[in-house]
Design goal:
heterotrimer; A alpha+beta (359); B mainly alpha (281); C mainly alpha (266); B: 281 residues; mainly alpha; two-stranded antiparallel sheet; 75% helix; 2% strand; C: 266 residues; 12 helices
Amino acid sequence: MSASASSSPQAAPSAGVSLLEVRGVAKRFGARDVLKSISLDIAAGEFLTLLGESGSGKTTLLRLIAGFEQPTAGEIRMGGERLDTLPPYKRRVNTVFQHYALFPHLNVRDNVAYGLRVKGTPKNEIGGRVEEALRMVKMSEYADAQPSKLSGGQQQRVALARALVNRPQLLLLDEPLSALDANLRKQMQSELKALQREVGITFLFVTHDQEEAMALSDRIALLRDGALEQVASPREIYACPATAYTAQFIGQTNLLRGEVRGGVATCGALRWPISGSDGVALFSLRPEAISLAADEAAPPDAVRFRGVIRQQIYGGSSELLEVDCGNNQLLRVRIPACGPLLGEHEFVFSAADAIRVRE
Amino acid sequence: MYSRVYKAIVSAPPLLWVGLFLLLPYALMFAHSFWTVRDGVLVHQWNLRNYQTLLSNPVYVGVLFRTMRIAASVTLFSLLLGYPLAYYLSFHAGPRKELLYQLVIVPLWVSYLVRGYAWKTILGSDGVLNGFLQYLHITHEPVGYLLYSPFSVVLMLTHIYTPFVFLPIYAALEHIPRPLVEASQDLGAKPRSTFFRVILPLSMPGLLAGATFAFVLSLGDFLAPLLVGGPSGTMIANIVQSLFGAAYDWPLGASISVCILIITVSLLFLTERLEKRWSFK
Amino acid sequence: MSAGNPTRRAPFLTVYAVIVFAFVYLPIVVLVAYSFNRDGVGGFPPRHLTFDWYRQLFADAPIWNAVLNSLIVAAGSVALALTLGLLAALALDRADFPGKALFRRLVLLPLILPGIITGLSLLMFAVFAGMQLSLLTVFLGHGTALISVATTELFAGLQKMDRKQEEASLDLGATPWQTFWRVTLPNLRLSLIAAGLLIFTLSMDEIAVTFFLIGRDNTLPLEIWGRLRRGITPEINAVSTLIFAVSVGLITIWYRLHTRAERAAA
């Protein structure tokens, strides 16, 4: 059921050479299969996000790559060489931890210098690189502060600098923004994206927040119960979800259950022509793909239906309607803000927007 | 939320009790150290003679230094045994951790006397160890120097304080967030580096607490020397004890006690400062 | 997500830990083993298994007299130390008064101070107050010194307690007195039992303070102490073995309660 990532076309990076190759990696804790044969390629310079609910295995995969856990099966390669057999301190991979894990007994400068010091970098080089890293995350003036005196956002920046100063080939970020409040989070998202472009380091980012994943990533790898559900660019994964789970997890959608027979799809009151194999079928139709029929010129493959507005939720720039199109078939419709609506209306959507998905 | 009456009711009895049965006795000890004994009678005459005697009599100074040496050895050996044990339990014991922890704390509360006595039976010239050595034909006559020496005092006290030292160190190690250890590895530090740069500094408060405990309690111990020490293992508290007993010079004994008290309290003060410096939120 | 870093094998450290454990347990094992040795303490290996020493022990009236004395002192010390320790913990937790910091240090001092200091200062106090040395002075010494243990344990219990429970009780119309009996004390139940067991064990074993405060009636440790000066017999091993067994029993119960109290609060 889950897309075996290596065989599906989206699983290979769209451009460039693979930096990291994950081949059939599985992880078992006791009787629990946390990861079930994951295969995934990450291109050099890419920003890839591991997205999934808690318990989906995304953090475990990250820890396998960082070296804090050993895979039960499979192998991980970086730049063509085995990575999973190396201890964490020999991997050219650095991690930004979920709660930053800044050393409380070292000030900001010494935290950032830590990686360089333990690897025996020449003293005269350390100072400059630390300064540069702190400047990059705009924390130069806090170099002498103790981590406990910093705000969450500032600690976040120090953690980033501490990892980046080592010039890793791959940076792992474990829900780094989850502890920040909403506004700061948005700001850090854009800074993070800009930073990644600036340093050109490959980012592997873990989050459970789909909006964050969409905003940041070149590609998203959606994990579900320890298996990859779909790997694709944000636009692709939103526009063409492969499964019902993906469609629901990423953005809002209407899942239409019905059947296809003789080139016609039937889902309750809705019917439209379709090419594809006959049988029971599941479609994802985004709420914003539906509009009021009066509003605009109908597309050539327009599907029209009438429905009664049961509920209207005002959302600032848009309205979310709950429309009953008969037989208790409820559809969510998102339209531009237009003031209160009542009663029955005619709606329209393009048949191409109803994406046939797997269960 | 708590009324003045409530606060008074809970505060007054312990305050009075502690004032009467702790503060006053300590004060009395302090006062005694400035009094004198003349012709076997205590004279309440304030003077510094006791302290002058202490400083001028090389026996007292010598024993005090020996006591500090013994206490320092006990502290060092307890740390050398207790720290690796705590480290092993915290980082390498895996699922056996809880059981092993309980195994360490059981002897912690087992009678001091019982444990001291056990060493006496092990180390004596007709004791278990000598019997064992002769049984294996390693030696043919009893080895005499095992018991009644500073060595046996250090051994017995180390045995007693190792679990005490273990406890705060273990607690400190357990409180180190594991992501910090991972972060250190992640940044390229080998296990040795990680230990000296992250784990050791962060366990410093526990180490200091354990070391202080072992040192202070060894410093004032008089039972181990009586049990296994012999004349060459005599410690400062034995002198105090004999001054309060047969020698009957309470004021002099009190002045030595005050010295022990001052050393103890200043050590506690010092380590408290140090612990604060080494503790991070 | 999972617990900590991968536990890499550390053979050297493991061996070292085993050695430390052996060192810690060696005397106890020897002690127990020789309590069953017919030929007395010492020599190797112990040869003839016997229960004679236990038989002799059970017929030894002075020992049992001393056990009774110890039990009386320990029971009294538990009552005294728990009562005052509870009040002291409440005072430290919720009241402010001048000298609070000093008070805290003073209460806890006997915990870290060598026993000889506490013992001697109480001896001087007893003489000063014209008291005869007896089990009463021993009880005063134990009770007072062990307030430190009760305070530490109960203060920790209070710190973990949710104060909103007491606020809720007051809000529902209970008087502070009722709140104390119906909410505060039940909440501290586990801490109280744990502290009581600990104080009991420590008092039963105490020797340094007792040494200076004892009158004509011996406690068990001092009875043993007195016999040690006359020479050692496996009878002392036998009584020590029994003390060890009882201590382990009490400590096991204490540990269970302690962890349960910690978990309940977490």
